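task queued by scheduler; priority normal; single chain, no ligands, no partner chains; default sampling; output format set to structure tokens
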Amino acid sequence: MLALIGLKNGSKFLHIICFEPFERDLYEIIRVEMMLTVFGSTALDTIRTPTKVLKDVLGGAATFAGISSSFFVNTGLIAVIGKDFPKKYHKILASRLNLDGLSVKNGKTFRYDGKYDKTLSTRTTLRTELNVLENFHPVVPEQYKKSQFVYLANNDPDQNVALIKEFDRVKFSMCDTIEFWISTKKASVVKMFKQVDAVVINDEEAKLLTKESNLIKCAKKIMDWGTKYVIIKKGQHGSLLFFEDVIFPSAGLPLENVVDPTGAGDSFAGAMMGYLTSKKKTDLATIKKSTIYGNVMGSFAVQGYGLEGLLRIKKMDIKKRIALYEKITRF
């Protein structure tokens, strides 16, 4: 069912578009060979949840995004690791991703240590060690430069702006950002938004960046800065896609068992970009569908510790969960 609600907005109308019936191609999860490039961090994470503590496990924004996208499309990684990076983790990355853009530098791998509260809704950062990431100057390998789809994770916005210019002909690009860059390099964040087609951002960070409390106002301000699409991630409550005067809300999948929210947002973004790349289309209808895949892949991520939730699933699991999503959102 398609519902349009007109909200008066000056001389314009703001259309809220509710869920459409899913088309057949939404079920077709075919990994194609067109390349998506993902630039971001590969890390060793220490994650403290109420039920388990994980020490120096494979993580990082680009890792989650890349592995999520790899279910749909050949994905090239641009990241840096230190000499201490465990071989078993390198093997995992190599089994899922093209690693021609993975640099190995003298020194230690980027490390993150964070603790969740009892509700898993709040995470406190205990320690961040940039290590080899601090002075990393990414280079796009020649074989990546023809990538028409590029995802820039929550890196230094100046690095993201410089990197996107190295590609020959980008059809669709998307970036993320985090509180640290908003607080320390806001002007660079805004400049970055002008260089990409879409911005994906958490709800609280959207409010911090725009100094608005209403998410519609947040999105409108971000679009005014130059990007075409804004996707606001709302955690367990799903996401909101904005384009011109269109709003597309997609619900989060209700889950009874959630153990570790780490990487859910990155998995969301990776699935979005992976789906778009596999379809080779960037029209609004396809972008809407990509947010559904984002929510579904994020739901797998939170049901395992670290990367477990993504690494243990198969394409059939995604198909089944998409079918479940359709069933519970149809009315």
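post-processing summary
- Confidence is low (pLDDT under 50) at residues 1-24.
- The radius of gyration is 19 Å.
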